[in-house]
Design a protein that fits this description.
Layout lengths: L13 H8 L33 H45 L13 E6 L2 E6 L2 H27 L3 H10 L1
Antiparallel strand pairs: 1-2
Keywords: Membrane, Transmembrane, Transmembrane helix
Length: about 170
């Protein structure tokens, strides 16, 4: 139950006091009656359980959180594509180059500044990567061609040697 202090007021009428005491004492100053009563009352709470946050606000915050997660995955993907992948590719190229020590860049081709003659004289010009790849490709083709030419010159036999070998079999 619930205890609550309440104040109740009794009306002082001459008739009620005359019935109780038999005298009229309404205007007598020396007599004051103070009555204190305790009573217990039943007390019920109406418990309507509702969420603290509104449903529309909850949906909006959920949508914001999902968008944040998607953006974090997209940012991670972008960082991997733009930073990590080229870095790993660079390490792989350096590793392949260190394992393949026999191939060296010619002195005229380097990744540093290469001088090209222009009408105004010598100008520093940095080769672009595709130009460097093209020049390296042509150099490799020339080396392969030289190797195949050496092999074909060595395997070509003189007609006199061929006749001697065929007679022995």
């Amino acid at each position: 139950g619930r205890w609550a202090a309440t104040f109740a007021e009794n009306s002082l009428s001459d008739e009620m006091i005359y019935e109780q005491d038999g005298t009229y004492i309404r205007y007598m100053a020396p007599r004051t009656i103070l009555t204190i009563t305790f009573s217990e009352q039943s007390f019920f709470l109406q418990n309507n359980q509702k969420p603290v946050v509104r449903i529309a606000e909850l949906a909006f915050h959920t949508l914001l959180f999902c968008t944040l997660i998607i953006e974090l995955f997209a940012l991670t993907f972008l960082v991997l594509k733009l930073i990590s992948k080229p870095f790993i590719h660079l390490i792989g190229c350096r590793w392949r180059r260190s394992n393949n020590q026999s191939f060296e860049f010619p002195t005229t081709l380097s990744k540093k500044n290469v001088h090209k003659e222009n009408s105004s004289g010598m100008i520093n010009h940095r080769l672009r990567s595709f130009e460097l790849r093209r020049k390296l490709r042509t150099l490799r083709r020339q080396k392969r061609k030289q190797k195949t030419d050496k092999i074909t010159h060595e395997t070509v036999r003189e007609p006199s040697n061929f006749a001697i070998e065929s007679s022995t079999f």
